[in-house]
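Weekly sync, protein design subgroup
Attendees: M.S., D.O., the rotation student, P.L. (late)

Item 1: inverse folding check
M.S. brought a backbone from last month's batch and wanted to see whether the design step gives back something sensible before we order anything. D.O. pointed out we never logged the input encoding, so this time it goes straight into the notes. Structure tokens as presented (1107 positions):
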């Protein structure tokens, strides 16, 4: 670090000089408990585990799936949300110990060495563009290479899309395909953040994204090494909180995942079960976060190479720690650290699972402060005023693991400010463990050979120990492009000795500041020498493109390490339980296959190229063939084999519903290895049926034995019997009730009866969205008024009857009140739960209280925006759960409420109510719609009176004509635009007036109709409207404009619009949106206005026109 950096940090913190250390630590409510000291050695969080997740088996040729739609100019553009959790967002104080002056010393060492100019040491093999621009920023490029294919995935408008290429030619084989087409449930609607991995230890593919709804990690495991036709196991793991920015790594016993959450978390997915397509468990452990970053995630290490991890190897995770940022109170000014963590996952007893720090490995000082610690904008670029996200917070994808038998390595990289001027360079490192020893830093370096910015790197090591580092590159005079460098295993430690080379030069700037969020460098599993890399670059029109490249060191595979791995391949044929296997299709490109080793998936093994094996029981088994070549190198191929003893007989079963003498039967029969083809029913009264789900009307009451015989597609049968009782016609019950009122409280008394039985159940609807199933309930209304209360009773034969009455209640003194009660508020430790209450004009008091439950909470209230410690109208933080905030004469509008768990708390009741004095008559609201035909205008009154009725109407048509009819017709003398007003008077004499502009035309010109409405949706609220469009309409215009907040607009013909079913969907910032339909269909058009955030006074105009 440099003195420039020290000045920059001090400047950044100058505004905080007046704050004490205690104040800084309390900058967010209770946040210090979320942040761990630098020397913490393990996570104290208790492991959480999911229920067993059963996969869907997807057997489909991917080439037959629909392609993802191509983005075209005019389509929507959106930025993926980058989530930052304020619980960790604490600016550090100035470091207690000043850092050394000068530029990054490793950069100086790198730049003092002459690099090789001979580019032939890194031969580029494939160069082609990947998936095209999708309108989503950033693309989140990920890709990996397998035995025959390269798969790339990026963000699309409907979640992740993936594309498959022939790795030998670069030709497109399949896609682009929406990843969600492999999913179901929540995973049928993907949201992005894709990851592609090839599991080299099993020769399987892993694809993943998170879901648009719920907290799901959608994980797809290929059933074979062939991703095109081999089929997939589709898993949907539900996390307890949203698993943002998931990064995966292949481990020996699990697929490991790191995520960015409110409290960061790591996951282990049960790999062995997933490879077999069996039900699998997910284990989660919360991790200690670092102060200073609001966005953070500890990434897992991903296995590469033909050599498996040693037995018992845990899941490794790595994190970089800038001591001046994350430990400023006691920082070491001479070194920063790489943290190495290990996840020991116990899927038999998940509570035994642990996440423990292996060690803090000192490295040279680096600088995480790039345009601050939280900004998403930093690096300049040519062609755009947007500066690009530096992605300072994480070790970049992937951290790679490789086993060389006598030692193991982990390599990774992250961005650093190399000279204190927000100048991005790449710090890279290698951790090494020799056999029988402990992990240590083998080497590290900083790559920044000039004044340009280099960041978002990806690093990997080939089988000879040579390293490649690829990354993004840009400056104020250079468009964002892709470059790479590298070093040989025999080179001086800490130095990238290969001259920088261009993979693709940028040709335009990126209009969004979002960049990345990651790139992906991988190794070909066949030769273990060829690197494959995918990243984004600036392409055209302010849009990104993606690029795929492959290259290798010419020396890789030569000398002692020159042997090429063999490729295992086999076929199988099974009759009942007996199988034969043929592994002669295995090959070795530079030698011969010397031996074959088979694992039949049930504990039995064999050798030889063509074994035969008889299984003991039915089932699906993961058969693995490991071949070894004449130089001792190995390769494994795993396939699923299904065996069966023969046809299994079906199992007959059925359910039924009896209604008096009529019975409806439903078949529930199953056939484990085929289908049920024939049904034969005997109803016990001489009647029969061959339908699957028949009904039978019995002639007399009684008990009958009903039998169902089913026959499967192989001719086997099975029969089941049940007794069915039917009764004569039942007389329905009679619903009735009485009630008494006490201000807003009403006590109801049931007086229903049933002449031929008993009343078995009660269902009350109190007319205010509340309900009850008690016989004699007591209900408290939140507002005075008249409500229609309905009671539905059901007798002991299932027959129902409903009665209703009007019930009028009034608050004490004739005043009004409103609000809500949340009976079970349960915030986690350091978790903020937010609520809102809308207070009307004239309210005299607002009372917000918490009580009961367990734990310790803080209550905070603020008008108009989410409260903070320093911006609130009331904060109550004494120990316990009993708090009260009372506001006199509260402002009209939205009040925001935060209940924060100081510790994990549960069962707390939150009461939030406003009260107002006595309210007199409420004036009516005038409104109307109009339909014109030539010079004639037909008016329809839509006025309302919330506490009475509209008694009279007074129309002024703007042409000196008037009317007192409710729905008049006026014929204008000439074409023109007239202001029409309607004044309505209610039964208390109060009035309300509204006006609209009405245009009439001569015959043959435009006729129109529709309405104008002022709408105010809350955040997440959907308001629905309809407009009837006549035959012959030539256009339909629906617009929203004005007001405050952020609202979305959607329309659809014939039914309520949704995200996937609409005729027009307009989203994006602000409230100004337009939907125009040419020649709209005759009938009802449905309109929704959704509050993306709370919005007020937005004007909705919906009109049809007819030429």
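Designed sequence read out in the meeting:
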């Amino acid at each position: 670090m440099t003195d420039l950096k020290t000045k920059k940090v001090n400047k950044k913190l100058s505004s905080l000089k007046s704050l004490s250390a205690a104040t800084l630590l309390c900058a967010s409510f209770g946040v210090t408990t979320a942040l761990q000291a630098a020397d913490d050695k393990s996570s104290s969080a208790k492991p959480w585990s999911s229920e067993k997740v059963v996969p869907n088996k997807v057997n489909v040729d991917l080439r037959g799936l629909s392609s993802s739609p191509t983005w075209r100019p005019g389509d929507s553009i959106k930025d993926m949300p980058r989530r930052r959790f304020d619980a960790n967002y604490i600016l550090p104080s100035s470091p207690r110990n000043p850092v050394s002056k000068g530029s990054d010393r490793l950069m100086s060492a790198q730049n003092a060495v002459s690099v090789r100019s001979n580019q032939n040491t890194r031969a580029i093999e494939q160069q082609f563009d990947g998936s095209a621009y999708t309108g989503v920023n950033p693309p989140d490029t990920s890709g990996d290479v397998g035995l025959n294919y390269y798969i790339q995935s990026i963000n699309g408008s409907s979640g992740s899309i993936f594309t498959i290429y022939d790795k030998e030619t670069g030709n497109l084989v399949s896609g682009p395909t929406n990843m969600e087409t492999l999913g179901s449930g929540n995973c049928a609607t993907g949201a992005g953040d894709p990851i592609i991995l090839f599991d080299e230890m099993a020769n399987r593919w892993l694809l993943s994204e998170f879901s648009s709804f719920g907290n799901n990690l959608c994980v797809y495991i290929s059933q074979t090494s062939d991703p095109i036709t081999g089929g997939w196991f589709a898993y949907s793991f539900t996390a307890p909180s949203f698993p943002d920015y998931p990064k995966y790594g292949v481990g020996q016993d699990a697929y490991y995942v790191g995520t960015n959450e409110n409290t960061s978390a790591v996951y282990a997915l049960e790999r062995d079960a997933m490879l077999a397509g069996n039900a699998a468990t997910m284990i989660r452990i919360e991790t200690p976060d670092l102060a200073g970053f609001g966005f953070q995630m500890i990434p897992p290490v991903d296995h590469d190479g033909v050599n498996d991890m040693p037995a018992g190897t845990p899941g490794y995770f790595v994190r970089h720690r800038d001591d001046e940022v994350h430990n400023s109170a006691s920082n070491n000014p001479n070194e920063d650290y790489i943290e190495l963590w290990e996840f020991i996952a116990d899927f038999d007893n998940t509570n035994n699972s642990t996440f423990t720090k292996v060690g803090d490995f000192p490295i040279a000082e680096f600088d995480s402060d790039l345009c601050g610690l939280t900004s998403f904008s930093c690096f300049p670029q040519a062609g755009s005023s947007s500066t690009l996200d530096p992605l300072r917070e994480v070790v970049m994808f992937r951290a790679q693991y490789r086993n060389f038998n006598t030692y193991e390595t982990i390599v990774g990289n992250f961005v650093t400010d190399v000279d204190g001027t927000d100048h991005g360079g790449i710090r890279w490192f290698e951790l090494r463990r020799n056999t029988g020893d402990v992990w240590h830093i083998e080497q590290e370096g900083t790559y920044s050979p000039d004044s340009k910015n280099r960041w978002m790197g990806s690093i990997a090591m080939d089988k000879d120990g040579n390293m490649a580092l690829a990354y993004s590159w840009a400056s104020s005079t250079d468009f964002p492009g892709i470059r790479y460098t590298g070093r040989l295993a025999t080179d001086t430690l800490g130095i990238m000795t290969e001259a920088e080379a261009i993979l693709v030069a940028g040709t335009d700037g990126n209009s969004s500041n979002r960049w990345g969020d990651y790139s992906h460098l991988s190794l070909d599993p066949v030769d273990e020498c060829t690197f494959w890399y995918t990243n984004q670059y600036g392409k055209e029109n302010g849009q990104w493109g993606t690029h795929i490249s492959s290259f290798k060191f010419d020396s890789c595979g030569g000398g002692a390490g020159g042997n090429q791995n063999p490729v295992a391949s086999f076929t199988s044929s099974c009759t009942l339980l007996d199988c034969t296997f043929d592994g002669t299709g295995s090959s070795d490109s530079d030698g011969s296959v010397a031996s074959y080793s088979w694992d039949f998936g049930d504990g039995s093994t064999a050798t030889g190229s063509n074994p035969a094996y008889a299984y003991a029981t039915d089932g699906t088994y993961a058969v693995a063939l490991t071949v070894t070549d004449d130089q001792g190198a190995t390769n494994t191929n795993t396939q699923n084999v299904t065996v069966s003893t023969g046809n299994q007989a079906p199992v007959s079963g059925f359910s039924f519903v009896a209604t008096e003498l009529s019975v409806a039967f439903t078949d529930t029969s199953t056939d484990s290895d085929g289908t049920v083809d024939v049904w034969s029913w005997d109803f016990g009264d001489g009647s029969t049926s061959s339908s699957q789900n028949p009904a039978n009307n019995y002639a007399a009451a009684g008990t009958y034995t009903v039998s169902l015989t089913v026959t499967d597609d192989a001719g086997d049968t099975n029969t089941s019997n049940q007794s069915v009782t039917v009764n004569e016609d039942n007389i329905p019950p009679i619903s009735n009730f009485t009630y008494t009122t006490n201000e807003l409280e009403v006590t109801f008394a049931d007086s229903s009866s049933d002449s031929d039985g008993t009343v078995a159940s009660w269902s009350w609807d109190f007319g205010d969205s509340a309900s009850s199933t008690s016989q004699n309930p007591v209900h408290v209304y939140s507002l005075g008024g008249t409500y229609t209360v309905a009671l539905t009773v059901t007798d002991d034969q299932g027959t129902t009857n409903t009665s209703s009455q009007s019930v009028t209640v009034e608050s004490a003194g004739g005043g009004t009140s409103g609000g809500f009660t949340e009976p079970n508020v349960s915030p986690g430790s350091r978790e903020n739960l937010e609520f809102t209450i809308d207070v009307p004009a004239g309210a005299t008091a607002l009372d917000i209280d918490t009580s009961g439950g367990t734990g310790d909470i803080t209550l905070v209230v603020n008008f108009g925006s989410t409260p903070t410690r320093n911006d609130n109208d009331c904060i109550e933080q004494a120990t316990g759960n009993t708090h009260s905030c009372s506001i006199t004469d509260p402002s009209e509008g939205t009040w925001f409420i935060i209940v924060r768990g100081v510790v994990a708390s549960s069962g707390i009741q939150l009461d939030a109510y406003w009260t107002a004095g006595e309210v007199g008559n409420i004036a009516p609201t005038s409104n109307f719609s109009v339909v014109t035909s030539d010079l004639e205008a037909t008016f329809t009154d839509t006025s309302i009176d919330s506490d009475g009725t509209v008694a009279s109407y007074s129309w002024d048509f703007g042409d000196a004509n008037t009317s007192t009819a409710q729905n008049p017709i006026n014929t204008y003398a000439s074409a023109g635009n007239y202001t029409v007003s309607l004044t309505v008077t209610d039964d208390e004499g109060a009035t309300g007036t509204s006006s609209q502009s009405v245009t009439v035309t001569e015959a043959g010109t435009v006729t129109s109709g529709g309405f104008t409405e002022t709408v105010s949706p809350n955040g997440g609220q959907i308001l629905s409207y309809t407009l009837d469009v006549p035959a012959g309409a030539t256009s339909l215009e629906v617009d929203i404009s004005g007001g405050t907040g952020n609202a979305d607009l959607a329309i659809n013909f014939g039914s309520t619009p949704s995200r996937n079913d609409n005729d027009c969907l307009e989203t994006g910032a602000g409230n100004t949106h337009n939907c125009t339909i040419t020649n709209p269909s005759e009938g009802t058009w449905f309109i929704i206005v959704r509050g993306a955030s709370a919005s007020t006074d937005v004007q909705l105009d919906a009109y049809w026109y007819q030429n």
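Discussion: Residues 3-13 form the longest helix (11 residues). Residues 928-1000 form a domain with the Immunoglobulin-like fold (CATH 2.60.40.10).
Action: P.L. to compare against the previous round before Friday.
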